Amino acid sequence: MSKFFCNKLFRFLSIFLFLNSFISPVRSSSALAAWALKNNGVLELRTKSNTKLKAYFKRANNLYGDRFWVDFPGELQNPRTLKGNGPIKEIRLGKPIKGKTRLVIEFNEKSDLKPLTWRMIGLDENRWRIKLFSSKLPFNTIGEGLVGKGIKNINENKNSIYLKNSNHDYFQLPDVKQNKFSVIIDPGHGGIDPGAIGIGGIRETDVVLEVSKIVKKLLSEKGVKVRLTRKNEVYLDLPPRVSFANKTDADIFVSIHANASRGKRRDINGLETFYYKGWRGRFLAKRIQKQILKVSPGSPDRGVKQSRFYVIKNTKMPAVLVEIGFLTGRIDARRLEKTAHRKRIAYAIAKGIIEYLSKVG
Ligand SMILES: [Zn+2]
Fold first, then answer.
1. Ligand 1: centre distance to CA 306 (Å)
2. Is CB count within 10 Å lower at the N or C end of the chain?
3. CB-based neighbours (< 5 A) of ligand 1, an ion
4. How far is the CA of 196 from the centre of ligand 1 (A)?
5. Distance, CA 189 to ligand 1 centroid (Å)?
6. Alpha helices in the chain (DSSP H)
7. What is the whole-number distance in angstroms between the Cα of residue 11 and the centre of ligand 1?
8. pTM of this prediction?
9. Has residue 160 got a pLDDT over 90?
């Protein structure tokens, strides 16, 4: 706690105004796309273009340590707290009021901060940096999503490398009428929303993005048109995923997720596939569930179930949401960690989709 109980609210950082700062009409989606507090004490932010930020600092009181926070337009999906290290007690992402996102950095007691010297610098129209503490303090970088430029290439390259080495026989899918079908694949979460975090820090967003890209590649090779709702590590709210799909004439929508159990129980493993209603959705869910179980021996069949998840409820085409295993489960996490298994799961989802398209059309 600070020696001087100085509770004055510093609004020492100005508001960044841009004349064309028209915020996206999707009111609910957070303008914060990625952030990282680096080991040199610099906080880096990536936002939507031309976002107005407001930054604040408050000295410690008897409840909290020194706090620095930034408010962003748009509402956060998953409020959460990340444990700090070194001079940082914790980092919280929340929604202080409806329609806002707040990133709070709370410092430990006795942090010797000089907030009046801090300056938020805009690097370009969507990137920001501010130095919060000395690089002499030992600190391990914490962050979510990619803050730098050139974010598009990273995952792309990784995928093209391992796909070249794939065992081709294994990926022999049944044929389906060429250039007739169109599919939307929706990799869950992304950017500042990592989804489930499992054993050893394995993140849902990474797993499902990789799997989704392989599904796309496999289906494309069979002459099925595939569109992904996100192609890289970006945050994407649920409504834009649905409106993107509904603007197309796609035959089906498949959202790919991985599970986490309450209390991170390692004994809970298994696969499940959800549909909202209608025999087509149910049929698609059954085909996919059957195929993913085949490549996941020993992992329980949690079944095909009805659910009202936003993305499958509001899409106009038959839609399913598949949970490819528990990242908190001993059996599933060990597998989903490996590219070889992600490829098998992707193959299984693609096979289920092709079976559906061949039979239902
Ligand atoms: Zn998920």
1. 16
2. C
3. 188, 195, 257
4. 6
5. 6
6. 151-164, 204-221, 238-246, 279-294, 310-313, 330-336, 339-360
7. 37
8. 0.57
9. no
Residue linked to tokens 């000089």:
114
> Using an 8 Å Cβ cutoff, are 229 and 186 in contact?
yes
User: 5: number of CA atoms within 13 Å, CB side?
Assistant: 4
**In angstroms, what is the span from residue 15 Cα to ligand 1's centroid?**
35
Cα 37 to middle of ligand 1, angstroms: 25
Domains of the chain and any CATH numbers: 9-144 (2.60.40.3500), 151-360 (3.40.630.40)
CA 204 to ligand 1 centroid distance, Å: 7
Give me the sign of the Cα torsion angle 124, 126, 132, 138: negative
Cα(132) to centroid of ligand 1, in Å?
33
Q: How far apart, in whole angstroms, are the C-alpha atoms of residue 222 and residue 25?
A: 37
CB 114 within 8 Å of CB 76:
no
CA atoms of 195 and 154, how far apart (whole Å)? 20
